[in-house]
Structure formats: structure tokens, C-alpha cells
What we know:
alpha/beta; Rossmann fold; 3-stranded antiparallel β-sheet; binds 2'-deoxycytidine-5'-monophosphate
Amino acid sequence: xxxxxxxxxxxxxxxxxxxxxxxxxxxxxxxxxxxxxILDSGALYRxxxxxxxxxxxxxxxxxxxxxxxxxxxxxxxxxxHTGDTRIVxxxxxxxxxxxxxxxxxxxxxxxxxxxxxxxxxxxxxxxxQAPGLVADGRDMGTVVFPHAVxxxxxxxxxxxxxxxxxxxxxxxxxxxxxxxxxxxxVERDTRDSQRLVAPLVAADDAIQIDTSHLDIESMxxxxxTALHTALQHKGVVSSNQGSQ
Length: 244
Ligand code: DC
């Protein structure tokens, strides 16, 4: 188990927010810029959803899902063709199914179960490795890394978020309709925000950024600037070190 000394010594930046707000892209870009590790916590819940389907476990079977979560055999492998990460479950590539809208719904359903969240907690904290970690999800700043040096909470209207998702899917040649996407996105956010354990909510000490009118480059710059200030406050970097 990761002890508190280790968790406190390594800087963590958390990026939370609802679906489709740009967390994943922003987290990846910031992590690449800093040379830090990255945790895509949503991918863990997405894989668990796929494991449940594969093993015929219902999305509300708490004990069976907890057991699956404890023994989950996952690999995240770099995909040299797309630059994305391939998600491998028990030796099988499940990236496409896990990343689909249905995969998101399955993830959100299994993620609402407290035992599942407890079973995945240490696995997430183990990503905290030197020189630092960028963690993206729903409860990174509130539950998993409450000591984070900086907590960001991204927001944008459901329409804007669905629009972005629509464009992404179209670019990948996947046919979807926009009103259907808005509906799915709102349903998922409602479930993620209203669950009893670790709901989607900004930490009290999070900096909120509305990304509705920001491109990814501006988002990344804002986060890096805020991080630099936070690290200075903690004495991790000196005031004359540039943020770029
Ligand atoms: O970030 P994402 O869209 O890949 O996440 C998929 C689902 O997983 C999301 O709808 C809720 C759940 N999730 C969660 O409960 N807690 C997290 N830290 C990350 C994701």
C-alpha cells in the first residue's frame, strides 16, 4: 500500500469534471509537457464494465463486481499508429468497446457501487510515481488524491460537450446523432453526480475553469500557469524558474 509519506512527497495535479469536457486531452498534454505520469481513472471503470460483460456479471451485482475489480488484469499500451493508449483486458484489446458511448454507460453504472470504488482506490494511488502525476476523473481531487498540489475542475455546457464528442466520433468515421449524444451525456452526468459515494463534485479547494470558449491550447496553458504558481507556493520550484 502507498503510504502517506510517498503520496505527499510526489506532486499530483488532479483534473476532474463531467464527460466530454476535455479532461483527457488536457491531462495528456499537460503530462507530456511536464514529463509526469498520467492516470486516466475513467479507463479503469470502463475496463471493469467490459470485464463485467465478458464474465456475464450484472452491472448491479456488487459482490461479484468487487471481486472482478480486485483481480482486474489490465494493461495500458501505447498505440504507435494513433498516439492513443490501447486498453487490454486479460490479454484482449477492448479499446473500441471501452471507449464507446455504451462503454461509458457501463463504466458509470459499475462506478456507482461503493465496493467497486474501494477496490480500485489503491490501484489508482499506485500511479503516483516520481517525478509527478496528472490524474483525470471525477473524484481525483476529492477522494483519491486529496493532498494534490493543484486541483482543477473543468466545466462546459452539455451542448458544447456533446458537440465536441460528436466531432471526435465523426472524425473517427463513427455515425452518431447529436440529440442522442446530448441525452446520453446528461444521463451519465446525472448518475455520476447523484451517486452516494464519490460523486462528481468540485473539491472545495479546486480551481474551476469553464472550457466552453477555450481551445485545448489555452486550456493547457491556463492549467500549466496555475500549476506553476501552486508549486511555487509549496516551494517545489523557485520563483525564477519559467513555467514553459
Ligand atoms: O472519464 P470517463 O468518461 O472515461 O469515465 C467513464 C465513467 O467512469 C464515468 O461516467 C464515471 C466513471 N468514473 C468515475 O466514477 N470516477 C472517476 N474518477 C472516473 C470515471
